[in-house]
């Protein structure tokens, strides 16, 4: 990104960016796109980082058919609780987030690694690159890992992250989000995404979220508040299932499904 | 009853993953200095040929016999098992480096390659590619017979890693531009 993009006077306004988003969306065909556009100029840092040539079709083979395996020697149970990593409680809304990881055929992705990272309740990341004026929380790092269980279920305890300002354009704010990194049963299912929260007023304004041009596809990134997950005087609960692309692994390479 | 479900969309990895995803010896699929080890390394570039200091590269591979490992231990890296997966963030000048061993072909007559996946700030979804072993690794015939490398266009040549004098393999990744690396889509992926 050139320096011209980062000085405040050279940044576009929200109105300009919103108009650009609307123009791209208006140009889409009826068939709903299910993945983000990688060429999406409203997200300014995509300009020099998106491939311009069509992706090549390949039949997956060899190592592409087998995801890496992780187990209890790799991940300790405490890593799933982002609120107990320091000597005191972090500030903010304690929440549980849980759901199932499934493949495109609806099969659970079992015993597989899920990694998350996020800002604190004030919207500040501990990463030194984030220097915006929101407080750090000495009791919150914001990194978690777990393995899905035999039903494909992951579960984290954390603090609800705040929205955070960035320099894509003037007065740009990312909706509150948790970054998720996922593996499936074959390596072609590998993906990284972001989970959002219902009713966030920033959705329409965010070029990263809006790079997904179809509303039904955008909706798949939004968790649901689940009062049955919420616990008395302790934590709110959110549910979010993730669907990976279909597995190309043969039945012998996958764990046997239950009947 | 299994049903067809639509995949959840991806999103960019963003600029703050360094304290979360990279881990100690993540880029060492074998301990440094092991017999038969070499580096698979390169630079990730943007469309202006500027190195990208905030990209994440992962590789997946078979072992030298052509077996793809399904063993845990990738995050522990205690040198006991070869897991065939590694992760490396680019440094301040856009370089990544893995210490590993050369994969053998998985199928008879097949060409040996590393599966490579790239994430970066500014990249709204992951990109897959392959780094094939060059034809000095006794795989000249296999390369010539490989269906992906047979696709039209000279740019598929960029999918073959370059052997350096040291024996290491160089594989640069250009997200955009004249030297743009071919990226892959698989059945079931949208675009």
Distance between the termini of chain B: 28 Å
In terms of DSSP E residues, the strand content of chain A is 15-25%
Could you report the average pLDDT of chain B, rounded to the nearest whole number?
Answer: 95
Order of helices and strands of chain B: EEEEEEHEEEE
Rg of chain A: 20 Å
Quick take:
The complex is a heterodimer of chains A (259) and B (191). By secondary structure, chain A is mostly beta strands.
Describe it.
The complex is a heterodimer of chains A (259) and B (191). Chain A has three helices and twelve strands; from the N terminus they run αβββββββββααβββ. Chain A is mainly beta. In chain A, the strands form three sheets. In chain A, strands 2, 5, 10, 11 and 12 form a five-stranded mixed beta sheet that branches. In chain A, strands 4-3-8-9 form a four-stranded antiparallel beta sheet, with no helix packed on it. Chain A is globular, with a radius of gyration of 20 Å. Residues 1-5 and 255-259 of chain A have low confidence and may be disordered. By secondary structure, chain B is mainly beta. Chain B has one helix at 140-145, and strands at 38-45, 55-60, 85-89, 95-100, 113-120, 127-132, 162-163, 169-170, 173-174, 184-185. In chain B, strands 1, 4, 7, 8 and 9 form a five-stranded mixed beta sheet that branches. Chain B has a four-stranded antiparallel beta sheet with strand order 3-2-5-6, with no helix packed on it. The longest helix of chain B is centred in the last third of the chain and has 6 residues, at 140-145. Chains A and B meet through β1, β3, β9 and β12 of A and β5, β6 and β10 of B.
Write the layout of secondary structure elements.
The complex is a heterodimer of chains A (259) and B (191).
Chain A: H1 14-26, E1 56-57, E2 94-102, E3 113-118, E4 143-147, E5 153-159, E6 164-166, E7 172-174, E8 177-182, E9 191-196, H2 207-210, H3 215-219, E10 224-225, E11 236-239, E12 242-243
Parallel strand pairs in A: 2-11, 2-12
Antiparallel strand pairs in A: 2-5, 3-4, 3-8, 6-7, 8-9, 10-11
Chain B: E1 38-45, E2 55-60, E3 85-89, E4 95-100, E5 113-120, E6 127-132, H1 140-145, E7 162-163, E8 169-170, E9 173-174, E10 184-185
Parallel strand pairs in B: 1-8, 1-9
Antiparallel strand pairs in B: 1-4, 2-3, 2-5, 5-6, 7-8
């Amino acid at each position: 990104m050139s320096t011209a993009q980062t000085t405040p006077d050279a940044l576009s306004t929200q109105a300009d960016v919103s108009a650009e988003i609307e123009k791209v969306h208006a140009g889409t065909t009826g068939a709903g796109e299910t993945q983000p556009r990688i060429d999406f100029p409203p997200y300014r840092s995509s300009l020099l980082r998106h491939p311009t040539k069509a992706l090549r079709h390949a039949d997956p083979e060899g190592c592409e058919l087998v995801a890496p395996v992780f187990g209890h020697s790799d991940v300790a149970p405490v890593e799933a609780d982002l609120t107990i990593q320091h000597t005191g409680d972090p500030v903010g809304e304690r929440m549980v987030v849980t759901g199932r990881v499934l493949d495109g055929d609806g099969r659970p992705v079992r015993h597989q690694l899920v990694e998350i990272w996020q800002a604190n309740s004030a919207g500040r990341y501990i990463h030194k690159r984030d220097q915006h004026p929101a407080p750090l929380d000495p009791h919150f790092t914001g990194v978690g890992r777990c393995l899905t269980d035999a039903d494909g279920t992951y579960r984290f305890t954390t603090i609800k992250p705040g929205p955070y300002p960035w320099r894509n354009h003037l007065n740009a704010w990312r909706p509150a989000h948790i970054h998720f990194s996922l593996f499936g049963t074959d390596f072609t299912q590998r993906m990284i995404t972001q989970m959002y929260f219902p009713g966030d007023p920033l959705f329409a304004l965010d070029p990263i979220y809006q790079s997904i041009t179809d509303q039904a596809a955008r909706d798949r990134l939004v968790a649901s508040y689940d009062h049955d997950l919420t616990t008395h005087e302790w934590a709110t609960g959110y549910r979010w299932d993730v669907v990976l692309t279909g597995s190309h692994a043969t039945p012998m390479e996958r764990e046997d499904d239950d009947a | 009853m299994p049903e067809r479900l639509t995949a959840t969309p991806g999103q960019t990895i963003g600029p703050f993953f360094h304290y979360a995803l990279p881990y100690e010896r993540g880029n060492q699929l074998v301990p440094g200095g092991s017999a038969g080890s070499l580096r698979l390394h390169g630079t990730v570039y943007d469309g202006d040929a500027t190195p990208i200091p905030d990209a994440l590269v992962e590789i997946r591979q078979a072992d030298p016999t052509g077996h793809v490992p399904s063993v845990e231990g990738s995050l522990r890296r205690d040198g006991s098992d070869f897991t065939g997966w590694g992760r490396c963030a680019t440094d301040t000048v856009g370089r990544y480096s893995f210490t590993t061993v050369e994969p053998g072909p998985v199928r008879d007559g097949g060409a040996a390659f590393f599966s490579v996946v790239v994430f970066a700030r500014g990249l709204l979804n992951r990109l897959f590619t392959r780094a094939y072993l060059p034809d000095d690794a006794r795989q000249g015939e296999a390369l010539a017979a490989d269906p992906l490398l047979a696709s039209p266009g000279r740019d598929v040549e960029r999918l073959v890693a370059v052997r350096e004098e040291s024996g290491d393999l160089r594989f640069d990744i250009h997200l955009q531009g004249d030297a743009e690396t071919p990226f892959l889509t698989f059945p079931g992926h949208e675009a």
